[in-house]
Amino acid sequence: MKIQTISTQGNGMWNEDSLIVNDTIQLYGVIDGATSLEPYRGLDGETGGYLAAQLIAKTIMNMSKDNVGQKLTLPTMLLQANYQLRNEMLKAGVDVNRKEQLWSACALLVRINDTYVEFAHAGDCMLIAMYEDGTIRLVTRDQLEVVDRPTRQLWAEGVASGLTSRDKLWQLVKPQIHVGRALMNTLNGYSVLNGEPELADHMEYGRISRAQLKSLFLFSDGLIDPQREHSLEQELKQIVFRVKSMGLENYIQWLIQVEESDPSCLKFPRVKKSDDKTAIYLEF
Q: What is the SS3 assignment for 251?
């Protein structure tokens, strides 16, 4: 099996993504942290999103090192990491009953077995399977699109009304972002690791057969082209086409150039110029 990995920081102060790579038991994962709406800074200035992503990755890597941990199901691993995240927030004085204070992270775990692939998923980290006949299969669903789309639309409306300052545009969409965060781990929203026990009711998991499976692609939402010229499903498949033709690192560099061409986010509506970008490409 061949593996390519990459984790590139966006324009934030911290890379709030993290990677999980355990070749021994063929366990792989992508974690995408999100900063709390009420700002938090650690002893070295770390954001809540950074702390969440690092803690989740560390917890899962530590669990997968011993014989007991290696036998845990992937959902159990995510739930244990979520529990540890809650404990760390409590130690840091975070009010875990206020969603706007919670450190959070989307997560995707994959474990390769001889005849099948297991996965567990929360949020918008994507898993795409590619087959010998050229079929491209979206295994996971971008659960955050339901709350991200209205934010992008509002941003675009602000630009259309004449706003050109990113600070003013941010103030315009901030209430909408609060609405989205209030939907974490609810039936009207999406699943995410944020210390809430309700994660158990909303995360997704399962397994797919390895029959005719050629490759797997795991990535955070920072790899999505901000131009968004197609439906989300087509955009996700377009990423696969470009990575296969350009290579993972070249695709990332191309994407950064697209983002740099619109530094104020006026042409391609989004709340930050460049998001963190993390991916794992597995070929069998």
A: helix
